[in-house]
Amino acid sequence: MFSGVYTALITPFKDGKIDYEALSGLIENQYKAGVDGIVPCGSTGESSTLSHEEHEAVIAFCVKAAKGKMKILAGTGSNSTTEAIRLTKSAKEAGCDGALVISPYYNKPTQKGLYLHFKAVADAVDIPIVLYNIAGRTGVNIMPETMAELAKDCKNIIGVKEASGSLEQMGRIKSLIPNFELISGDDALTLPLLSIGGCGVISVITNIVPKEIVSLVKAFNDGNLSEAQKVHYKLFALIKTMFIETNPIPVKTAAGILGLCSGDLRLPMCEMEEANKLKLEKALKDFGLIK
Predict the structure, then answer these.
(1) Domains of the chain: total
(2) Residue 240 belongs to some domain of the structure
(3) Any residues with CB less than 8 A from the CB of 192 and at least 6 apart, and which?
């Protein structure tokens, strides 16, 4: 359902407000590059700094701009189950194809709490749901056994964006739930994940180099492993640079340098350290994106 390349879309700001003109351009760039879908209002979209009204407005705008061209998997997670349900309902009403629901952050629920949280969202909203597992930002790992229980009990929970960094865990998920959509949440692990049965990626770096990730996934799916490896290693240094500071600071700064949108961020996200910005500029030059 959500196989292929999806972009974890940045949210452009201008003078402290959402820049919808720039957002429209970003969406069009993704469409022209051949990505399969976009993911607005995720971590890369700075959802944690958007008001509820802005969150819903961005998702609705993306649906109107991209519907019929690409799928929309909207970020609707929260550390409040009630709020996650409300945001997921709003995404369904807007016409999204599915919802990406991150595990509750800060609360650090038990595995039982995670199960009950996701089940409550799935029971409340009849829309395909992809779990988002990223313990580095939420403080809790969704165990493969918990995912398997959710997949069994909630037919609309159909996959996971895996950003645990553990290929062992990803393999465990695939062995427990073979038909569960296993989606990379880490650009550096896209190719390894595909090799163990993953179906695609929700990518940060496609904000600036979407064609390259599209070509990597296509090469792998066509059975051209050597070409997929070639693209993987070509991208490796640039991907690493995208995470020298907390995401989305580097990728949004890069988008600003490339003229795709303003590089403005909302506090507590802030401008890159100058030394890191120089490293980023060098990586962009080395890749041939700037002179």
Answers:
(1) 1
(2) no
(3) 167
